[in-house]
Automatic annotation (TrEMBL):
SUPFAM superfamilies: UBC-like. The gene is Cni-ubc-8. Keywords: ATP-binding, Nucleotide-binding, Transferase, Ubl conjugation pathway. It comes from the Eukaryota. Residues 192-202 have a biased composition (Low complexity). Residues 8-22 have a biased composition (Basic and acidic residues). Coiled coil: none annotated. Gene3D superfamilies: Ubiquitin Conjugating Enzyme. Belongs to the ubiquitin-conjugating enzyme family. The keyword Transmembrane does not apply. It comes from Caenorhabditis nigoni. GO terms for molecular function: ATP binding; transferase activity. Residues 40-191 form the UBC core domain. The lineage of its organism: Eukaryota, Metazoa, Ecdysozoa, Nematoda, Chromadorea. This is UBC core domain-containing protein. Residues 1-48, 191-239 are annotated as: Disordered.
Length: 261
């Protein structure tokens, strides 16, 4: 038995599908001179929407907290520093924007709270990462970004192609000072505080959602659609989404047929 998709996620997807249905069928015809049947299949915009929905749900299924900013094309992901590194105790908010041609064009990502790293601009949060900026292919997805690419970047900086020159010089010539500075930035800008009076939690436990952020650059909370209980979703929800998708498509088709009759 699959667990239900959280209501906020379901509403976001249903709203996207409703707008898609109101816009009318979006198909390529085999021959425009011979009518509209049989359809060759959905055009790229429809395929893109389905790919985005799947990518976001897979990201959530892997216990990444997500806040929607603009439907499913712009959102914020909570990213934990990789273990066994100077960034281990850090938690960052990363803004993700999906371009119109995603997944054929790479997502834009940026750190909202400060981080000290040779390949991340301290002021803007811009990330210099070849696999995202130059070598991206449609075979990659958002899980690759947060499960592999970013952790590897933090653990193995490329000081020869820096966005933060000071961090790059320190990394190459003063490694101990670099590690100390990284830890200072983590403590100052990337630590979730336990609310006053709350019992202390173990390091392995997920921080409380009411934790206070050292983040002066994050968007207004009023502009975000918070997706509740995201960290509790298990991987079976991706399969649950597929069932929901079939059910929803069938319902929309029935409504369209009813309107025609």
């Amino acid at each position: 038995m699959f667990r239900p998709i959280p209501p906020d996620i379901r509403r976001s997807i249903e709203e996207a599908r409703r707008r898609e249905a109101e816009a009318g069928p979006d198909y390529d015809d085999e021959d425009p001179n011979e009518g509209s049947y049989p359809p060759r299949g959905p055009k790229k915009p429809v395929l893109k929407k389905r790919r985005v929905e799947t990518d976001v749900l897979q990201l959530i299924a892997k216990n990444h907290d997500v806040e929607m900013v603009n439907n499913l094309t712009e959102f914020i992901v909570k990213f934990h520093g990789p273990p066994d590194s100077e960034y281990e105790d850090g938690v960052w908010k990363i803004r993700v924007e999906l371009p119109e041609k995603y997944p054929f064009k790479s997502p834009s990502i940026g750190f909202l709270n400060k981080i000290f790293h040779p390949n991340i601009d301290e002021a803007s949060g811009t990330v210099c990462l070849d696999v995202i900026n130059q070598a991206w292919t449609a075979l990659y997805d958002l899980s690759n970004v947060f499960e592999t690419f970013l952790p590897q970047l933090l653990q193995y900086p490329n000081a020869h192609d820096p966005l933060n020159g000071e961090a790059a010089r320190m990394y190459m010539h003063k490694p101990e000072e670099y590690k100390r500075t990284v830890r200072e930035y983590v403590a100052r800008y990337a630590t979730e505080k336990t609310p006053a009076g709350a019992p202390a939690t173990k390091k392995a436990q997920e921080p409380e959602t009411s934790a206070t952020w050292h983040d002066s650059s994050s968007p207004d909370d009023d502009d975000n659609i918070s997706l509740s209980s995201l960290s509790e979703i298990d991987p079976d929800d991706v399969a649950s989404f597929e069932e929901f998708e079939k059910e929803y498509d069938a319902r929309m088709a029935a409504e369209r047929n009813q309107q025609k009759s």
